[in-house]
UniProtKB/TrEMBL annotation:
Its cofactor is pyruvate. The active site is at residue 166. The gene is asd. The modification Pyruvic acid (Ser) is found at residue 166. InterPro entries: PS_Dcarbxylase, PSD-A. This is Putative archaetidylserine decarboxylase proenzyme. It is found in: Cell membrane.
C-alpha cells in the first residue's frame, strides 16, 4: 500500500508510544496502537484510473457543491474522515499559479467553509482556464500541494493531500455547462476515477 507524504509525522509517534506503553501500561498501548493504525489507514494512497473520458473528480467523498459562477461551473467534493484524502487532477493542463490563502477552519461541508484556509491551483487546459481548490476543514491544519507553477498535469495525477478532513473543488473550463455534468449534490465519487463532467465531441 502506498501512503501520502506526512504519514510518518503522525503514525510513528503513535507506534513509538505503543511500544513504550506496552511495558508501562498495556491497555494504553493498545489505544496508541489503534491510533497509529488509523493514521496509517487515513494516509492510504491507492492507485486510481479514470473510468471514462471527461473531467474526473478531484477527491473521494460526496458532491457537496454544484453551482454556476459566471460562465463556469463549480463542483465541490466533501471528504469525510473515512475517505482517501489524496487529491487528483481532473484534467490535463499546465499549472499557471499555486496560491495559498489563510483562513478559518470551519466544517468543510458548510457554506461558511468558503472562508477557510485553502490552496488554489490555476490551470490552463486545452478548453480554457480552470481552477482546483484544496480547502481545509474543521480538523485539517495543513494542505500539502504536490505541484507548482509551470508543471504539466496529466488527468488523474496526484496533486496534493490535506490532513484530516477537507473539501476539494474543481471550477470547470468555460466550455462546460450544467448539461455536461454527470453528478449532482449527494453523489459519491472517487478521486481520479469518477467522471463528473463530459462533453460530446
Amino acid at each position: 500500500m502506498r501512503f501520502a507524504p506526512g504519514v510518518r509525522q503522525f503514525a510513528v509517534p503513535a507506534f513509538a508510544a505503543a511500544a513504550v506503553l506496552a511495558v508501562l501500561a498495556p491497555p494504553l498501548s493498545l489505544l496508541a496502537l489503534a491510533v497509529g493504525g488509523f493514521v496509517a489507514w487515513f494516509f492510504r494512497d491507492p492507485e486510481r484510473r479514470p473510468s471514462g473520458p471527461g473531467v474526473v473528480s478531484p477527491a473521494d467523498g460526496r458532491v457537496s457543491v454544484v453551482r454556476e459562477e459566471g460562465d463556469q461551473v463549480r463542483v465541490g467534493v466533501f471528504m469525510n474522515v473515512t475517505d482517501v484524502h489524496v487529491n487528483r487532477a481532473p484534467f490535463d493542463g499546465r499549472v499557471e499559479r499555486v496560491t495559498h490563502r489563510p483562513g478559518k477552519h470551519l466544517p468543510a461541508f458548510s457554506k461558511e467553509s468558503e472562508r477557510n484556509e485553502r490552496v488554489d491551483v490555476d490551470v490552463e487546459t486545452d478548453e480554457g482556464p480552470a481552477e482546483l481548490s484544496l480547502i481545509a476543514g474543521a480538523f485539517a491544519r495543513r494542505i500539502h500541494p504536490y505541484v507548482e507553477a509551470g508543471d504539466d498535469l496529466d488527468r488523474a495525477q496526484r496533486i496534493g493531500h490535506i490532513d484530516f478532513g477537507s473539501r476539494a473543488d474543481v471550477l470547470l473550463p468555460p466550455t462546460y455547462d450544467r448539461e455536461d455534468l454527470l453528478v449532482e449534490e449527494g453523489d459519491s465519487v472517487r478521486a481520479g476515477e469518477s467522471v463528473v463532467a463530459a462533453r460530446e465531441r
